[in-house]
Amino acid sequence: MSANKQLHIPKTIVLVGLMGAGKTCIGKRLAKRLGLTFVDADDEIEKAAGCSIPDIFELYGEPAFRDGERRVIDRLLNEPVQVLATGGGAFVDAHTRARIKETATSIWIRADIELLLNRTARRNTRPLLQNTDPRKKLEKLIEERHPAYEQADIVIESGHESPDVTVDQAIEALEKLLPSSDSVIAEATQ
Ligand code: S3P
């Protein structure tokens, strides 16, 4: 995007992909670049439940977490245009995926297993990776979930480059995807 042009984003941008792909990190930067609000679905689920995700899993189980996730994302998709980072399981849910496809532009941040393992090893806040072999679990999730993520409108590869490079790729892809009639609305210098 050239420095003096502002990309017009008509629909909420939803970031999807596996744990550790960098949805929150890229989402925050993307929102800043586009002048939009950033919201993280996992944070909103924790606020709504009044407890952490590990506690939700432990106290109520994964199905209850998924119900809450579905409801919270439904609500966030009804809000004004923003950048929304979702948890890794969200876009795998048929209802949530359909709602995102209907109302938003989805971006899959794709990363290889080594990167996912490396990034997820830094925190122990992901119940699906606790008390298990994280590599085996992530391999299984890749197999199960990639077919759903492939349905995103845009696919961005995330590797060891700086997050700003990934954000540039996302913006370029958005420029290509959005209809030219409403892609550029303002010349910031005029
Ligand atoms: C999950 C991913 C997590 C969080 C929960 C379940 C998943 O979010 O929603 O632990 O099913 O992949 P991140 O992808 O942001 O780590």
| Percentage of residues in helical conformation | 40-55%
What class would the helix/strand composition place it in? Answer: alpha/beta
Shape designation: globular
- The overall number of domains is 1
Number of strands: 7
Largest sheet: 5 strands, parallel
What do these coordinates show?
This protein is α/β, with parallel strands linked by helices and 190 residues long. The longest helix has 16 residues, at 62-77. Residues 181-190 have low confidence and may be disordered. The protein has a single domain (11-175), classed as Rossmann fold, CATH 3.40.50.300. It contains 9 helices and 7 strands.
Keywords:
Rossmann fold, 52% helix, alpha/beta, 5-stranded parallel β-sheet, 190 residues, 7 strands, 9 helices, binds shikimate-3-phosphate, two-stranded antiparallel ribbon, disordered C terminus
Short description:
With 190 residues, the protein is an alpha/beta fold.
Task: Give the SSE map.
Blueprint: E1 5-7, E2 12-16, H1 23-34, E3 38-40, H2 41-49, H3 53-60, H4 62-77, E4 83-85, H5 94-103, E5 104-110, H6 113-120, H7 134-149, E6 154-157, H8 163-177, H9 180-183, E7 184-187
Parallel strand pairs: 2-4, 2-5, 3-4, 5-6
Antiparallel strand pairs: 1-7
Helix pairs in contact: 1-8, 2-4, 3-4, 4-5
The site of shikimate-3-phosphate (S3P) has 10 residues, from loops.
